[in-house]
Design brief:
The structure is a homodimer.
Chain A (H helix, E strand, L loop, with lengths): L4 E6 L3 H12 L5 E7 L14 E2 L3 H4 L6 E4 L4 H13 L3 E4 L2 H18 L3 E2 L10 H8 L5 E7 L2 H12 L4 H10 L8 H4 L2 H15 L9 E2 L7 H9 L3 E10 L5 E10 L12 E8 L3 E8 L3 H16 L7 H4 L11 E8 L2 H6 L4 E7 L4 E8 H6 L1 H6 L3 E4 L3
Helix pairs in contact in A: 1-11, 3-4, 4-9, 6-7
Amino acid sequence: MKSKLNIGLFGFGVVGQGLHYVLNNSTGFKANITKIAVKNKEKKRPVGAELITYDKWEILNNPEIDIVVELIDDAEEAFNIVSEALKKGKHVVTANKKMLAFHLQELYDLQQKHNVSLLYEGSACGSIPIIRTLEEYFDNEELLKVSGIFNGTTNYILTKTINEKLSYENALKQAQEKGFAESDPTNDVEGYDAKFKAVIIAFHAFGLIIKQEQVLNIGITGLHENDIRYAYEKGFKIKLIPIIKRLPDNRINAFVLPQFISKTKQLYNVDNEFNGASVDCKFSGEQFLQGRGAGSYPTGAAVLSDISALSHGYRYEYKKHTQKHASDFTNDVIINVYMRYNTSSDLDKIKFELINETFISDKYNYVVGNINLQTVITQREFILKNKIFISFLEM
Amino acid sequence: MKSKLNIGLFGFGVVGQGLHYVLNNSTGFKANITKIAVKNKEKKRPVGAELITYDKWEILNNPEIDIVVELIDDAEEAFNIVSEALKKGKHVVTANKKMLAFHLQELYDLQQKHNVSLLYEGSACGSIPIIRTLEEYFDNEELLKVSGIFNGTTNYILTKTINEKLSYENALKQAQEKGFAESDPTNDVEGYDAKFKAVIIAFHAFGLIIKQEQVLNIGITGLHENDIRYAYEKGFKIKLIPIIKRLPDNRINAFVLPQFISKTKQLYNVDNEFNGASVDCKFSGEQFLQGRGAGSYPTGAAVLSDISALSHGYRYEYKKHTQKHASDFTNDVIINVYMRYNTSSDLDKIKFELINETFISDKYNYVVGNINLQTVITQREFILKNKIFISFLEM
């Protein structure tokens, strides 16, 4: 590639501006942002007007532009832009987890067909180089499990509930006031964001494209102070944890659930807006990575790292995918959970395979036991509607 | 390169056998170990005699061998083998930290001159991909500090002293019995091993080749139960920590000292034989990586990862070195330490710039304060001889 690359940037929000800053303040790597395509004509931008365009084709049709960087909110429009750019032979960097989770297969195919590279380290766990590490370093390791804290918003909220004894509602409010949660927090607090990241990571860890709708996500909206007290008394912290696991028969299971985490785990100490990823390897044992999960500069730096890698001709090899490391996806697994419920009829609907602990009081009721994940999936709407709280517990 | 590589292996100890196992049990990557050169003719080997040779030239002069993997103990002989192999145009993988720390400049020059690749991820922090992450992911990040637990033996010993209240002597004995420490533990317990790794990491983090003899290393041999009690009462753990730091004037400082670590640090939870590396970045904030620091399979897997990378034509770019990120090395820095001493005359010899705390009793004496690192270096022999214990404390 050329010695100084021309970048066409889509979106100039938090991450776009972070990239702009990091790029201009980085001593090593040099690249021009040639054009920035944005939607809102009313908004004031902290860059010269000559850089701004409202027409995406000004970037996509510009042969001078080597790399398209896509950092907009709208996942479907992002997919249009990214696939158009790849078809035109441009390399692309994106941080759009929702788009990736919905379109992994098409985006993989487009890369192969048009012999271009799509990088997206900024889409998962912010500044933690989790995708690159899985691709480049654990490419010959048989992985057993990947799990972690992939969502900074819920981790911030959950940290406040345990460390400062705030209720879920108050912690959410505080997170919104501080800009850690959006006014509509659904995507984060119901575990969709964490799930999208898990789907992306699963592709690189196990080589399997999992359909996002196959993966259960139950977030933290059902969290009650009784659950917080329970966790506190047992010495647990509560974290929202996606787990992606290889089963003995080589199938893959994945789900997103709150989890009670004990002091002995490194994730116990990953608080506030930080992310952490734990990778269980057959030969190397447990690896743990921690870093800032979000934020303008950390995510901007992750995007810059991808741009720099592109300038060296880097592309993901998807080795585990081509080698077919995993055979299939299944939700037919038994998991161990704590479940706080309302009335005994709940237990008829949400049937456990085995109950190890039963607690009944005038304040609240819970059971701890084994349940088939498929049962939780079937009853998901009922669980959410009735604010039943389920938390994974390691056996 | 060819589809199936031929490897010539030097040394068949713990790591060599680990590599052999991991290679034969890895589903993805395929490579032959064509020949294994060993020294001791008496030892029984768990592989066929046709694989073994006692003549290094059988590997070095064999044009069929693509990659030389060097895993012997003797650092000087290792350097002979590695430089000979590089001169003959062979790519090399090594895990020999001492050899690397003593010969970084020559090995860098040989790679450039003969257009070959030398990889050594297994030399630092076992299974943690610290060098690869610094090279590939933080290559455009301005780094501020790298520190961590780079030596599993001392971490195992120190964990026993704090968690099980063993004396240093008993903890060392237990580590030796369990095979975590050698019969002559000097290299580990006096901090040489950690220092060698710090020198290697400094090259990739800051682009500077530091002469190992410039870097202070004081280990844990002076640790007394009074120090252990002090740390315990203050809620600290004691870890042996190399710090490599960029100063505001762009010079680099590095040293290896015991450190009191508070609960708020991730390194607090890195116990037993585990390693952890903390990387402070200008844009990405603090990154943390943890994994197994040693052991047959983890280190074998790190070596295999390098072999696999070689098969894709990978080489370190040493970007920070070519971009001259750091200007020079200095030991003229002020550090904050706890020092347990014997008599008041010790304080005349080991002069503090500023003393913040003084404790004098009939049992033991200590001060906490600021000292110039150069003073500690000058008095190193005196400190070791008199079993004075110095521990770094973050200000």
